[in-house]
Automatic annotation (TrEMBL):
CDD domains per record: ABC_NikE_OppD_transporters
Name recorded for this polypeptide: ABC transporter ATP-binding protein
Record bears the keyword Flavoprotein: no
Family annotation (SUPFAM superfamilies): P-loop containing nucleoside triphosphate hydrolases
Domain ABC transporter positions: 28-267
UniProt keywords, alphabetically: ATP-binding, Nucleotide-binding, Transport
Entry's family note: Belongs to the ABC transporter superfamily.
UniProt key word Transport: yes
Species in which this protein is naturally found: Paenibacillus baimaensis
GO molecular function: ATP binding
InterPro entries: AAA+_ATPase, ABC_transp_ATP-bind, ABC_transporter-like_ATP-bd, ABC_transporter-like_CS, Oligopep_ABC_C, P-loop_NTPase
Amino acid sequence: MSVRQWEIPVTQLDPLLRVERLKTYYPIKKGIISKTVGYVKAVDDISFDIFPGETLGLVGESGCGKSTIGKTLVRLETPTAGRIYFQDRDITDYSNREMKKVRSDLQIIFQDPYSSLNPRKQIKDILAEPLNAHRIVAGREVQNRVDHLLEMVRLPKSYKNRYPHEFSGGQRQRIGIARALSLNPKLIICDEPVSALDVSIQAQILNLLKDLQEELQLTYLFIGHGLGAVRYISDRIAVMYLGKIVEIARTEDIFRNPQHPYTRALLSAYPVPNPHLRSKERIVIQGDVPSPANPPSGCRFHTRCPLAKSICREQEPLLKGNDHAVACFEVDS
């Protein structure tokens, strides 16, 4: 039975993943000796939980740090500060050998289905690689497991003898999903898995992910900038702006009652079937996104916010609230 069918709210369970004040900075090098002259603050002091069986959606503009969070959680990027707890284990400083033991439970689906598969290997070898590396099964059982993985993502077993270039984008992403499932993970980071696909194919992949979640009791962090896809698959949504989480709440609370000015602007651009039925005016954000190498003082959004006050330029608002948390002085007041 999946978590969604339990009577208790999912947030009353112990978190599967807990992130505390996570920072991921990239050094800016200059000169022949590559002197560090600054840092790109891609992820800057964020905290959140992901609970068993839920899907946490992560949305925001391109460059806000969404994908960096996903890569940092699976340790493809090294965190600069903060802690990452997975199943109550602090994996922040794990070595490569220690992380290998965690990888079977913590997997990632990459954004680009065209570059995430080795073009020189057949599908059977791509799917068998993690099985052999982690010694999940051996001998003939490897190919039996490969056949089963293809069936799980709705692809014929005969496809295992083909190469990646023989597939469409949607089929490649199904293979990427199969690879992520190969080690029986508990949590999968979905790094914009449908953004490179046609709309009709996006719907198929989203339905597949939901079916697999129900069947295998999976937990997802779903990263995306398409609000329709994120709304469809997510139980809760966290909104990011320039390396910070500015609002986090249950999906329908975000869409019915957005509280942060940036969230309101994002949702005002959300397309509706009949624009004449739109209940709120379109909010156009003025100005450009500041550089993450030199973010504004105080609230990161104050340079573009129509509600900005003097305190917004001087102090950084904290993310406050239980079921619906917001980082905004206007909401606090």
